[in-house]
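Sequence only, no structure available. Ideas?
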Amino acid sequence: MGRKMRDIARRLRKDVIAEFNKLDTTIPVEEIYPLAKLLTEKYVTGEYQKIVIVYNHYVSTLIQQPRIKQLLPFIAEEKTDTGNDKALLEPSPQKVLEHLLPRIIESQLYQAILENDASEHSARMIMMKNATEASGDLIDDLTLTFNRLRQSKITTELSEITAGKIALEK
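Reply:
I predicted one. Tokens follow.
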């Protein structure tokens, strides 16, 4: 998703199956649905064995960490033993999975995109702050240099005037 990833995939000579545009603004969740549907269908049909996303995880304004997250198949987390071995599920587990799988993929994709956006905006904010500080330092240096040159020129003119006056008095 996005121009940068398309360019990277082409540079690495990877096959691009589909391209999804991403604006610089925060995208609505509805724009995730086609991508989630494509990934879910390719996984369910067996065309893809594993689905992984790569994004920047937003930790703080100064820290963004690249992340690789496996969406499918789900990685089993530790189960807590409730002591209840039997559970009644209605509808069937297959129906629940068919309904929830797209929603889970959509929410994880959307979370990754939002975190990536937050990381990008944070990095831009830090760059703009650094550029502002650097330009302020440059202005201060140039002002100091200008004032020194102006003072030097004034001193030279005063020396010439004084020397001319002394020469006329002799």
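The first strand starts at residue 51 and ends at 58.
Hope that gets you unstuck.
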